[in-house]
Design a protein that fits this description.
heterodimer, A: Rossmann fold, Rossmann fold, 4-stranded parallel sheet, 10 helices, globular, B: Porin, 19% helix
Chain lengths: 302, 494
């Protein structure tokens, strides 16, 4: 009898040990670009939950019950970091009761740890608006950053799910090749954009501009995270008369009013850029999102 | 390595020398140069104008001489300023060339992990215009739960909240909130640790915290949508319940949010009575919440909570039939059931422009035990008899953000006192007139507010309330309130 019991226990514990390896890895992506990247690298090995959409302002997400439930199930959290999610992610971590995805654990992955941030403020003062103290966190708009994060993420997937480490590495190789080809294609295609002066709603595409040599000469927001004011827009218009910019750029989640008001008076086009994957119908994955962004910019520049 | 140090030092020096308003990218610099070019042109024209005026002035009488020299001085200083600005640009240009030598991002320090805890401070103050004397505030038909009414008319600051939090080690996090009272006292509002390290959706919390019962109770008062707590919170939880205890909570591994938890505490405040001479828990709570999303724009949460307290000699003051101020006390068991419901709407899940929130809670309480009359023995020997009450109440509120920064809200509160059975009255020596606070009455209130939040960190609010807490007097209350949060960026619970 005791022997049977022993066997049964052994069998049960073996089954329990085997189960997690069979089940797909649960990935919780804070933003769609990291969800798309995780899908590229993990394929069917992961169930990817994306917490936000391109139509939401990722600075201001509410820690909804559904997000807590998703964080509870996650094996790996893939987020931007650099305090972009500071207003909601800590609540999810605390309330989820999930030890795998806490800070400092392998299940906690911050993309901004693997790239160089720009626009690090020399002065930290909220009088300057909602400044990002660690630098501009919107790193995903430079494809070279995506490539760096992909390397780190494939590595991390392998740590969290060692059984498939080699799969993640081979998928990374495949992705990296396609990505680097696409990156040079985008760069060549976007050559006419070099030196083009633009006005932007929020500093959301600084990395993209940096990469393509686009010059942001003004921002509709008087200060980061502060809604545009008429006084500030009038100042921008005066600047526009002296030193014209060629287009106004806003992300699809930004309120359209300010950019339309400005564009109408300045007689320049508004370009609505998908802020990430899913920002418009054409942006289905990372590749088509960049295709779409660059196409929209080129079109407005013609 | 020393080379990197030297370069880093050079970079930081360059950054220090360069005025902070000048960004790091060469595009910005070009922009600045353009602007300075513009400035120079403007100065040139101004200088030319001044020189013209100068010539005219020289032609005039000797009296004008003084003015001319003044104009000369202005012209000189304008030229000097232009030169200075140019120099600054030159300095700023020097910086970006060296910038790539900065240390790679992977070695950058992560501020959240710096050992300093996150510190924040909430400043609050109100101007209150009350048509009734706040000292006469009481909730008719209910055993007084302590100070729950408006504190003062006129201008006053409310308690200032100092919050400190940090991770303790890989296993625990600690949270502390002190309330600095306007008249000098300090009270510990929250002081607790949490750990999610047990995994499997289990988290443990211990210390002084707001029990997770209902919806509003776990939120800090500065995050509420109105200046004050709704009537059921005041009558049944003394405004907001905090207790010393432990909490165990479990989140289910399901798509639907399901959370179950329990708490055991000392029964520090109303409906408990802080009996320091007794072992074991004097208050315990059970709660369950479920929630989820409906489409991309709607989310909801609903739940049921149960709170049981065992107060001993929970005293309050009342006037007896002869008008003497006597102290009475309740001992027994207090059971409270709460049902809560919240619905939030934000178009496509983006609440920054417009959003809507509907929230309602229902409470039902039963208290059984003994009620002692005149425990201070002012009128002879104290007497005691049985006491039992079934009381309930609810509130519902809606808050709509109709454009960025602006919100409006309405709230309706209602309480039902029922008819408590008081042994000393039903079969004892006293009459109902000896317990005027417990005379049957159904208090209610209606509130409207509008608030404006220039940023995430500040809020100004105007609130008007028709308050019928007192049986025979309506209090028209107007509040103007400010809430400012300084320091660490807090993350708010949903």
């Amino acid at each position: 009898m005791r022997k049977h019991l022993f066997r049964l226990t052994l069998l049960a514990s073996l089954a329990a040990a085997a189960l997690p390896a069979l089940a797909a890895l649960d990935v919780f992506a804070c933003e769609p670009e990291w969800g798309a990247l995780a899908t590229e690298l993990a394929g069917d090995n992961a169930d990817v939950y994306v917490a936000t959409t391109a139509l939401q302002d990722v600075h201001h997400i509410q820690a909804r019950p559904s997000l807590i439930a998703a964080a509870r199930r996650a094996d790996l959290l893939v987020c931007t970091g650099a305090e972009l999610e500071v207003g909601w992610l800590p609540v999810l971590l605390r309330q989820s009761g999930n030890n795998r995805i806490q800070r400092g654990h392998p299940g906690y992955f911050e993309a901004t740890r693997y790239v160089r941030l720009i626009e690090i403020p020399s002065r930290l003062d909220r009088a300057q608006g909602d400044v990002h103290p660690m630098g501009n966190p919107h790193i995903h708009t430079d494809p070279r950053n995506i490539a760096r994060v992909a390397d780190a993420l494939a590595q991390r997937l392998g740590e969290v799910d060692p059984g498939h480490a080699s799969t993640y590495q081979s998928r990374l190789q495949d992705f990296s090749q396609r990505w680097s080809r696409a990156t040079s294609r985008w760069k060549r295609g976007a050559a006419p954009l070099h030196g083009v002066r633009v006005i932007e709603h929020h500093k959301g595409f600084s990395y993209l501009f940096d990469w393509l040599g686009i010059r942001a000469v003004g921002f509709l927001e008087p200060k980061p995270g502060v809604e545009p004011t008429t006084g500030h827009l009038a100042e921008l218009l005066a600047q526009q008369r002296r030193n014209p910019a060629k287009m106004v750029i806003r992300a699809s989640y930004n309120n359209p009013r300010a950019s339309e008001w400005f564009a109408e008076r300045a007689h320049i086009p508004v370009v609505v850029l998908p802020f990430t994957v899913g920002g418009d119908s054409a942006s289905k994955d990372l590749f088509s999102w960049y295709d779409d962004m660059i196409e929209r910019l080129l079109e407005a520049n013609r | 390595m020393p080379k990197i140090h030297a370069v880093a030092a050079a970079v930081s020096l360059a950054c220090l020398v360069a005025p902070p308003s000048y960004g790091q990218s060469s595009d910005d610099l070009k922009e600045i140069r353009d602007q300075i070019e513009q400035m120079k042109k403007e100065y040139e024209t101004r200088i030319r104008a001044l020189e013209k005026r100068l010539a005219a002035a020289e032609a005039k009488a000797a009296q004008a001489d003084r003015r001319a020299s003044q104009a000369k001085r202005v012209a000189a200083s304008a030229r000097h300023q232009a030169a200075q600005a140019e120099e600054q640009v030159a300095q700023a240009t020097a910086a970006p060339e060296q910038a790539p030598a900065a240390p790679p991002a992977s070695t950058q320090q992560e501020r959240q992990n710096a050992f300093n805890p996150a510190i924040s401070l909430i400043l609050q103050g109100t101007y209150a215009d009350l048509s009734q004397d706040p000292d006469t505030y009481h909730i008719g038909g209910f055993i007084p739960p302590g100070e729950v009414g408006p504190e003062k008319s006129g201008l006053s600051i409310a308690e200032t909240e100092l919050a400190i939090s940090a991770t303790v080690d890989p296993y625990f996090s600690g949270f502390f909130t002190a309330a600095l009272e306007p008249d000098g006292g300090v009270s510990v509002e929250n002081a607790y640790f949490t750990t999610p390290m047990l995994g499997h959706g289990i988290s443990v919390q211990g210390g002084r915290f707001f029990p997770d019962i209902g919806y509003l109770n776990a939120q800090h008062q500065h995050a509420w949508d109105f200046v004050d707590a709704p009537l059921p919170y005041r009558a049944f939880l003394g405004g907001q319940l905090a207790d010393d205890g432990v909490q165990l909570k479990w989140v289910a591994p399901t798509r639907l949010f399901v959370e179950l938890g329990g708490e055991a505490g000392r029964g520090l405040s109303f409906p408990g009575s802080d009996n320091s001479d007794r072992n074991g828990a004097q208050m315990f709570a059970l709660f369950g919440h479920v929630g989820g999303d409906v489409g991309a724009s709607n989310s909801w949460r609903t739940g049921v909570s149960y709170l049981q307290a065992s107060p001993r000699d929970r005293s309050y003051q009342d006037l007896d039939s002869a008008g003497t101020l006597v102290t009475n006390a309740f001992s027994g068991t207090s059971r409270l059931w709460i049902g809560d419901f919240v619905w939030k709407w934000a178009p496509l899940g983006n609440p920054t422009n417009r959003n809507f929130k509907l929230q309602a809670e229902y409470m039902w309480r039963d208290e059984d035990g003994t009620l002692a009359f005149d425990t201070d023995a002012l009128l002879g020997n104290p007497v005691a008899g049985s006491y039992s009450s079934r009381q309930s109440g609810w509130y519902a509120q809606a808050v709509y953000q109709f454009m960025p920064r602006w919100r409006v809200g309405v709230r309706y509160d209602q309480l039902y006192s029922g008819n408590p059975s008081i042994g000393l009255v039903d079969s004892g020596p006293l009459s109902a007139a000896d317990f005027p606070s417990l005379a049957r009455y159904n208090p209610w209130g209606t509130t409207a507010m509008i608030d404006w939040s220039p940023s995430e960190f500040s809020r100004l609010r105007l609130q008007y309330q028709v308050d019928n807490s007192r049986p025979n007097a309506t209090d028209h209350q107007v509040y103007l309130q400010y809430i400012m949060s300084l320091g660490a960026h807090g993350a708010h619970i949903w």
